[in-house]
Amino acid sequence: MKKKNGLTAIAAALLLMSGVASADTVTNVWYCSLNDGKTSEDAHSLNAKWLKWAHATSGSDAITSSFVTTAVGEIKGFMWVDTYPDFATWAKLMDADTNEDLEAAFNELQTCKGSRLLRAEATEPAK
Fold it and tell me: In this structure, which of 17, 56, 58, 107 has its CB flanked by the most CB atoms within 10 Å?
């Protein structure tokens, strides 16, 4: 999870150059399953360490991260939903040196099928 790869770096560069409004919230959703012997408590504990690193590295305490499971219906696995205040904050983490200890711990914890990067535009209530 949360690995830096070539495609992500390219996407970050294109987004920064595209003129996309930087005020839009960015959400990165990872689709994962826990590896044998791992628990949601293990995931929360490790993710708290990642979030501390993300805040320190990006300089933004506005980054949030959630361990998401289904409340109704059966979908195997879980999702990480990481929310950034803007593209610039997300890109700063993508450009940062990878924390190899955290990355190795996430690889031991889980197997992820992939991720999606989403842009959210808030809707104001009608007046």
Answer: 58
